Amino acid sequence: MRTEQEAICETERMALALGYEEAGLRIHSALDTAYLTARDSVAFGRVERMLGGQSLGTGDHVCDSLIAAADREDPIVPIDSAKR
After folding, report:
1. Separation between Cα atoms, residue 13 and residue 34, nearest integer Å
2. Does some domain include residue 83?
3. Distance CA 48, CA 79 (A)
4. Residue 82: predicted pLDDT
5. How many domains does the chain have?
6. Which of 43, 58, 64, 69 allows an S-S link to 12, with CB 3.0 to 4.6 Å?
7. DSSP code of 1?
8. Which tens digits make up the pLDDT trace of 24-65?
């Protein structure tokens, strides 16, 4: 569950730095790398089912310390869309 919460916080960090639309596009484009095989996708589904009913999110400052630490170590720098 901790890893899932960290992934949610990293998604929030990306959205804060890049905007929700750009962060969503980048995450979606990386999914084929993150889940290379059908077995990976099945395992991801098992994790989601195991977390069923758990309350994970970004509210109430849940992600503040994780985001601050990640920003210190590896800040997200938006790429100017005109340069793409």
Report:
1. 18
2. no
3. 32
4. 44
5. 1
6. 58
7. -
8. 888 888 776 766 666 766 776 777 777 676 656 667 678 888
